[in-house]
Amino acid sequence: MTLGALVDAGLEFSALANSLRESALPGIAPSEYTLSCEKVYRGALEASRFHVRVAGDLDARSLEGATDPPSPSDSHSHSHSHSHSHEHSGDQSGKDKSRQGKRGGPPERNLTQILALIAGSGLPDEVKETSSAVFRRLGEAEAHVHGMDVDEVHFHEVGAVDSIVDIIGSCLALHLLKVDEVHSAPIHVGSGWITGSHGRLPLPAPATLELLKGFPARHVESGAELTTPTGAALLTTLSKSFGTMPDARIASIGYGAGDDRPGPVPNCLRVILAERTSPEWGRDRVLLLETNVDDMSAEWLGNLMDTLFAAGAVDVYLTPIHMKKSRAAHQVSVIAPMARERQVAEALFRESTTFGVRRREVDRLILDRKFHKVTTPWGDVRVKVGRLGDEVITATPEFDDLRQAAATAELPLKEVHLRVMELYRQGRE
Question: Which site among 21, 66, 160, 348 is 20 to 30 Å from 366 CA-CA?
Fold first, then answer.
């Protein structure tokens, strides 16, 4: 549905198909699948229906995961198995452990195998990064729901050709359209039941709910699934904000079609491509986790900060405070991406002496940030550049790069800092 909507909004289908084939995904030959896109109606709306047809598979499986041909009598029950159907390494169902998919189709893959496939491809670096991040979120959610290590989850369709193209293709489509930011409305989740390899499951699906932790969601009495785990993984990984649409000039609109099914709303995903009307601050939503500790040494606090950064924190800072019984203490404050809540909170509990953590969601105003590589006699140094529209507001060298260059040059850090900024300005001029 994402790919259908982006094609409907103006992405050339041939450009997407050619880019996917030229990416040379290891282990997936271009002859294994064909792509097509057709116009259909969902209610009163005309939309684009994107298909992947896998060689050797009798099904024409659409990207939202249908594994049986649609029929008028059952147009919905089959459409979500890719999001929930996977086997675990401890499964006793008697399946062939060679990881072959349904009906001897494409092999099942675990997260490590999928990430290796992406890393070894010819995709642009940006697409490798975003698609890998989507797969990690999806794999971690499934593992958490089923109480196992992430590499014990062996995906069926999510590891098969059609759904690999689904996720990678969505990230590639945004890259081809030169989309700078993705924003989303609050995510709608449906009601009812679905049947997957784990039996009958309530909606929203458990993995979908796990992926939506920390994000705004709205429940709709739909009797159908409105957001699959794959869709939730894409939205929560790629979107900078959730809420009203930013002020912008609308350029085009696209509708991506899902199954033709009854329900309170047409089964479509709408995408709006827009351009900023004027330079403005960027916005995103992050977590602020805080706790007070009065029984940790300076060495422990230093280790805590290192561990929190390794867990994905954006920033960590300590504030001297006084607590009960007049004890000198520290308030530990952590700014973290919404998607890293579990990892950062776990690091706080494991590496500090706290028994509780306060949690708040906060909005940030941010500059558009990009890295500029400066070549010096002592190695490359990245300079982080903050822009408001086309205007450079601030620029500063990355500390670790600067420290390495200073050590190589055997010069004071401040002298290398001055030299790097001189070279950066010369490069701009």
Answer: 348
- Pairing relationship of beta strands 217-219 and 187-189 according to DSSP bridges: parallel
Does one domain contain both 270 and 154? yes
Helices (H), 188-253: 206-211, 229-238
CA distance 282 to 421: 25
Regarding whether 354 and 384 lie in a shared domain, the answer is no
**Do 321 and 239 reside in the same domain of the chain?**
no
Same-domain pairing of 173 and 313: no
Same domain, 235 and 330: no
Query: Parallel, antiparallel, or unpaired for β 60-62 and 86-88?
Result: unpaired
Tell me the helices (H) and strands (E) count for the chain, helix number first: 12, 20
Task: For residues 207 and 245, state if they share a domain.
Answer: yes
Instruction: Classify residue 324 by its DSSP letter.
Output: G
Closest CA to 215 of 142, 284, 313, 311: 284
Tokens 């800072």 -> residue: 317
Which stretches within 37-124 are classed as H helix? Answer: 81-84, 111-119
Q: Based on the structure, what is the number of domains in the chain?
A: 3
- pLDDT tens per residue, range 35-77: 999 999 998 999 999 998 887 653 433 333 333 333 333 333 3
Domain that holds residue 288: 282-366
State pLDDT tens for residues 129-163. 999 999 999 989 888 888 888 877 766 544 467 77
